[in-house]
Write a structure and sequence with these properties.
The complex is a heterodimer of chains A (170) and B (154).
Chain A: H1 3-29, H2 35-58, H3 68-73, H4 88-97, E1 102-111, E2 114-121, E3 131-140, H5 141-146, E4 158-168
Chain B: H1 2-6, H2 11-47, H3 50-77, H4 82-102, E1 107-115, H5 118-122, E2 128-137, E3 142-152
Antiparallel strand pairs in B: 1-2, 2-3
The chains are: A alpha+beta (170), B alpha+beta (154).
Chain lengths: 170, 154
């Protein structure tokens, strides 16, 4: 065998290794955002939003100040503005559960046979990649009275309210 | 192989280059496949309405338990039977849930298929069941739980 050919083969292998290592280092160190990555982030964000609503709804009273039903029952039914959120308790709890994210909260309920939707927490206008999580809660006359709310619910009626949480990242 | 060994004009270099090319192409195809798998699995997770179905079933269970106590309390203050009070409350629940879900293009139907609440009126420790038919349809996913058997007690 010729020594020259063997050396050239080893050079080729060394060069190939160098190229492979360079490609690996570059791909590992750079963040490449593809549609696939964005979709996976959306899945994670949606799960976080649903988890936050679930936690607020089922958490015992000694864990948090007011759970989701109590917060909604005590709502003054005034729509939120950019500088004033009408549910400070819920806003505080959500800001702890979703650090670094922006969110809006809307309430949807049936009034005189029609669906009504109102803003309760307004932190801005969602971006295109915002996700929406929803959870339905039940209100009765006694829950509203206990929470000192103003929902017009008769003693033999129930009111279903959908809490709609829109979350996005800036 | 004998020819390769005797020939010193670089066949081994060409061969190793060819092998490396094939390896790189294989790796690129594998990486692309992994990305496509991630895309399809994420898309499937986003499209499947598991949260909505969970919300409907869990809320229906929770509401049925609460409505039992509510119907018993109403029975003490009005002249309607527990069953009548329960059906009235359930109809309110069904109507509102249907309208709320229709607001985002989803169809929900809820109907009581069977119930017997007479035993819990007299016995505080009795346990009864309410059978509720639940269906959900968003045009792509159809879900039915017929019946969803819900345990209720006073």
């Amino acid at each position: 065998m010729d020594d020259k050919a063997q050396l050239q083969t080893l050079e080729g292998l060394g060069a190939a290794l160098l190229i492979t290592m360079t490609v690996v280092v570059i791909t590992q160190s750079a963040t490449v955002m593809t549609p696939q990555h964005e979709m996976m982030l959306d899945v994670q964000l949606e799960q976080m939003a649903y988890d936050a609503l679930t936690l607020l709804d089922i958490a015992p009273s000694w864990v948090i100040d007011s759970n989701l039903t109590e917060c909604v029952a005590g709502w003054d039914r005034n729509e939120a503005t950019m500088k004033h959120n009408s549910l400070p308790y819920l806003d505080r709890e959500l800001s702890l559960l979703l650090p670094g994210f922006l969110y809006n909260v809307d309430f949807s309920y049936v009034q005189n046979g029609n669906l009504t939707t109102k803003n309760a927490i307004l932190n801005g206008y969602p971006t295109e990649d915002a996700v929406v999580a929803r959870r339905t809660i039940m209100l009765t006359n006694s829950t509203v009275t206990t929470a000192k709310g103003v929902w017009p619910i008769a003693s033999n009626e129930i009111k279903m309210v959908e809490v709609r949480l829109t979350v996005w990242q800036v | 192989m004998a020819g390769l060994r005797e020939n010193t004009s670089g066949q081994l270099i060409i061969l190793s280059g060819f092998v490396l090319c094939l390896s790189l192409v294989t790796l690129a195809v594998l990486v692309n496949q992994a990305m496509m798998t991630g895309y399809h699995s994420s898309n499937a997770v986003l499209e499947f309405p598991k949260h909505q179905i969970r919300d409907i079933t869990s809320q229906t269970k929770e509401s049925c338990v609460y409505m039992t106590r509510f119907a018993l309390a109403l029975n003490q203050s009005n002249n309607q039977s527990i069953q009548d009070n329960y059906v009235s409350l359930f109809n309110q629940y069904e109507q509102q849930m249907r309208i709320i879900y229709a607001g985002h293009g989803e169809e929900v139907t809820l109907a009581i298929s069977s119930m017997n609440l007479t035993s819990i009126a007299t016995n505080a420790s009795a346990v009864s069941t309410v059978w509720v038919n639940i269906t959900y349809n968003n045009g792509m996913t159809y879900y039915a739980s017929e019946p969803e058997i819900i345990e209720v007690k006073p």
